[in-house]
Amino acid sequence: MPTLLRVEGFRFFFFSNEGQEPPHVHVSRGDGVAKLWLAPIQLAYARGLTPAELRRVRELTRDHAPTFLERWHEVFDR
């Protein structure tokens, strides 16, 4: 489960067995979790995060999407 980024208490990661799905990241903070598709950036699901936290998660995902996609392809396009 590679961690891609830790910032502002959020942990962005993906599971190493998810290569059959389109590129995405999981995000956790405390008891909250979310999953976001990367191309285009879209919330797949979320629970336990406030609306403000979800806005910030979307912003951070948008800002770091090129790096997240690069890492995804490094792991799954072997």
Structural notes for this entry:
The protein has 78 residues and is of the alpha+beta class. The chain has one domain (3-76). It is 33% helix and 37% strand. The protein is built from one helix and five strands.
Key phrases:
alpha+beta; 78 residues; globular
In short:
Helices cover 33% and strands 37% of the residues. The protein is α+β, with helices and mostly antiparallel strands and 78 residues long.
Oligomerization state of this entry?
Answer: single chain
Rg over alpha carbons: 12 Å
The number of distinct structural domains comes to: 1
The count of β-strands is: 5
- What strand order characterises the main sheet? 1-2-3-4-5
Instruction: Report, as a whole number of angstroms, the end-to-end distance.
Output: 17 Å
Major sheet summary line: 5 strands, antiparallel
**Portion in beta strands:** 35-45%
The shape, in one word, is globular
Low-pLDDT segments, ≥5 res: none
Percent helix, as a range, is 25-40%
| Nearest-integer average pLDDT | 94
Could you say which structural class the secondary elements and strand pairing correspond to? alpha+beta
Total helices: the number is 1
SSE order, one letter for each helix or strand: EEEEEH
Secondary structure layout:
Elements: E1 3-7, E2 10-13, E3 24-29, E4 32-38, E5 41-47, H1 51-76
Antiparallel strand pairs: 1-2, 2-3, 3-4, 4-5
